[in-house]
């Protein structure tokens, strides 16, 4: 994820997790962002300002004045400079000060002056975390518009096991970077897309929406129904689109595959319903949509709120209801200047079924893959596809690596959209 030109304030407070913030600073600097670290006086007991100024390439700010020069640090300028304002780790004490506006240090004063989006990553002992005053203060920050990056469960500095470990720096980085990139999308910045060269020109200024991976439909808090999709095919299509210069949003169901190109923004989802919600948000500003996800056709009408116990002698039964057909819903709303591609995963009467889906879902193109072809479909690194278009043309391709299949699909889309 490239964040060239972005200004990030990272506020570090006095908790043991302060050492992790060194890595957070490094991740933002590596992404091309400018980072200004503000430390509370107590934070310096956990990590030295020298470490953070070396990593950020800027002197760390902690006091209102530099002692030897008398230089005043303007919290207002700093607050306005920031595109994102992160407090990580955020102790119970700093959270309380932020929630109540106690501006007795440079960090809280800058927080009160900023207009940037604020992300707060709490880190503390589990009992402090659960204390009603902390819960209340966090709720206040939430309602003030801060995004709370929930702490994880695990062994804490007290050696107790519970919720209170600061989220890992790479996860915090992804949350903030995704927010900044998503915000930028409506005011496209080519540096953020990070693509150049000849291939990049092919999809320059095109907004591409891709669904990939499986969806999960909950039976109870620990069980779900899903399918064998690994996300490999959709991720390869997303990477290829970014290499060709597109601004790509990848709506990805739960899987291990992830894009390698920095121009791909990933929105992780779980169920078909979640996937539809995200697609509906992005589709109006999309030029080309590719529906590669293996969406569960059915979901459970009333998933259990609690784990269904094996000890209950009764065999559970579930009522299934149809999931929304995302491709069909978007197909209905498709404007003339939008191009939509679906996939068809078939086991019999492959091409007939695929063409029927192409027409029924109002798509411009459908990519058929059959489970009868060895090395095609789910899980494999390869695929074998036949591409059908709404003007009645079809083209069959041989068995290839999914990256090469992605390239064939984009070549076909470009042929069809460029007349
Ligand atoms: O992820 P991999 O392991 O790499 O595997 C790739 C793949 C096999 C998942 C992929 O190549 C593929 O075929 N994806 C579509 C699978 C599928 O659900 O096909 P379908 O024939 O059931 O659906 C037809 C189309 O409607 C698809 O574009 C699908 O995304 C879409 N759909 C289906 C159901 C639903 N509720 N909403 C949808 O949008």
The N- to C-terminal Cα distance equals 33 Å
Question: Strands of the largest sheet, in order across it?
Answer: 12-11-8-13-16-17-19-20
Q: Name the poorly predicted regions.
A: 185-198
The radius of gyration is 25 Å
- Quaternary state of this entry equals single chain
Residue fraction in strands: 15-25%
In DSSP terms, counting alpha (H) and pi (I) runs of 4 or more, how many helices?
A: 15
Shape: globular
What's a concise summary of this model?
By secondary structure, this protein is of the alpha/beta class. It has helices spanning 21-30, 49-56, 75-81, 92-100, 106-113, 126-130, 132-143, 169-184, 190-193, 197-201, 232-243, 272-282, 326-333, 350-360, 402-417, and strands at residues 7-12, 34-39, 84-90, 117-122, 147-148, 152-155, 161-165, 207-212, 217-220, 223-225, 247-252, 264-268, 288-291, 298-300, 320-322, 339-346, 365-370, 382-383, 385-389, 394-396, 400-401.
Describe what this molecule looks like in 3D:
This protein is 34% helix and 23% strand. Helix 3 (75-81) packs across helix 5 (106-113), helix 4 packs across helix 7 and helix 11 crosses helix 15. It has 419 residues and is α/β, with parallel strands linked by helices. It starts with 6 loop residues before the first strand and ends with a helix. Helix 14 links the parallel strand 16 and strand 17. The protein has an eight-stranded mixed sheet with strand order 12-11-8-13-16-17-19-20, sandwiched between helices. It contains 15 helices and 21 strands. It binds ligand PMT. Ligand PMT binds next to helix 11, helix 13 and strand 16.
């Amino acid at each position: 994820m490239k964040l060239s030109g972005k200004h990030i304030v990272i506020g570090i407070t006095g908790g043991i997790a302060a050492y992790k913030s060194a890595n957070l600073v490094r991740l933002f600097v590596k992404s091309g962002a400018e980072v200004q670290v503000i430390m509370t006086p107590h934070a310096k007991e956990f990590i030295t300002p020298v470490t953070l100024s070396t990593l950020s390439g800027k002197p760390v700010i902690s006091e209102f004045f530099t002692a030897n020069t008398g230089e005043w640090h303007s919290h207002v300028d700093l607050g306005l400079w920031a595109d994102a304002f992160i407090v990580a780790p955020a102790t119970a004490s700093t959270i309380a000060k932020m929630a109540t506006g106690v501006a007795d240090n440079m960090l809280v004063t800058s927080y009160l002056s900023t207009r940037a989006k604020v992300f707060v990553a709490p880190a503390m002992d589990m009992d402090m975390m659960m204390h009603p005053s902390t819960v209340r203060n966090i709720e206040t920050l939430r309602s003030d518009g801060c995004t709370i990056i929930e702490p994880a469960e695990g062994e804490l500095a007290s050696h107790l096991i519970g919720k209170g470990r600061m989220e890992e720096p790479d996860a915090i980085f992804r949350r903030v970077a995704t927010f900044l990139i998503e915000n930028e999308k409506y005011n496209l910045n080519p540096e953020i897309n990070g693509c150049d060269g000849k291939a990049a020109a092919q999809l320059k200024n095109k907004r591409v929406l891709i669904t990939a991976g499986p969806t999960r439909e909950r039976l109870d808090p620990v069980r779900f129904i899903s399918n064998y999709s690994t996300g490999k095919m959709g991720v390869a299509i997303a990477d290829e689109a970014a290499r060709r210069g597109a601004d790509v949003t990848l709506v990805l169901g739960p899987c291990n595959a992830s894009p390698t190109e920095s121009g791909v923004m990933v929105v992780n989802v779980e169920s078909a319903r979640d996937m539809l919600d995200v697609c509906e948000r992005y589709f109006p500003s999309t030029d080309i949509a590719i529906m590669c996800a293996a969406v569960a056709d059915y979901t459970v009408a009333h998933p259990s709120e609690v784990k269904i116990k094996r000890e209950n002698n009764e065999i559970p039964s579930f009522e299934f209801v149809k999931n929304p057909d995302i491709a069909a819903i978007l197909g209905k709303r498709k404007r003339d200047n939008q191009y939509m591609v679906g996939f068809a995963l078939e086991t019999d009467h492959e091409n007939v079924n695929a063409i029927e889906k192409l027409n029924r879902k109002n798509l411009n193109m459908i990519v058929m893959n059959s489970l009868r072809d060895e090395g095609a479909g789910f899980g494999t690194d390869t695929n074998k596809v036949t591409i059908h278009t709404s003007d009645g043309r079809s083209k069959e391709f041989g068995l290839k690596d999914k990256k090469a299949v992605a390239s064939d699909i984009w070549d076909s889309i470009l042929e069809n959209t460029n007349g």
